[in-house]
Design a protein that fits this description.
2 helices, 96 residues, three-stranded antiparallel β-sheet, globular, alpha+beta
């Protein structure tokens, strides 16, 4: 089961500008806590993998942040970044 959280306020995705106002834990990794600074999330519109920043902001994941992750998680996030890039290219190519 996925649990969602309403975030206080809205902040734009730094990739596509969509205003984000909620977050959820993926099934199987729910810690019971609300997402906090440094946690990962995904834009619901462009699928860019983001990190929660201070003051309710979002930032793109940097290569340096990826390097700090344990190898298994680094692969999951890197694969997600590749998928998101391909998704954005597909949307761009098929946009009317």
């Amino acid at each position: 089961m996925t649990r969602t959280f309403h975030l206080p306020g809205q902040a734009p995705c730094p990739e596509c500008g969509t205003l984000l106002d909620g977050a959820g834990w993926a099934s199987g990794i729910d810690t019971g806590d609300a997402p906090g600074v440094g946690d990962f999330t995904v834009c619901v519109d462009c699928l860019t993998i983001l990190r929660f920043g201070p003051g309710g902001t979002f930032a793109r994941v940097t290569p340096g942040e990826l390097a700090l992750l344990e190898p298994g998680m680094r692969k999951v996030v890197a694969d997600g970044l590749k998928f998101a890039a391909g998704f954005r290219e597909f949307r761009k190519a098929t946009k009317n």
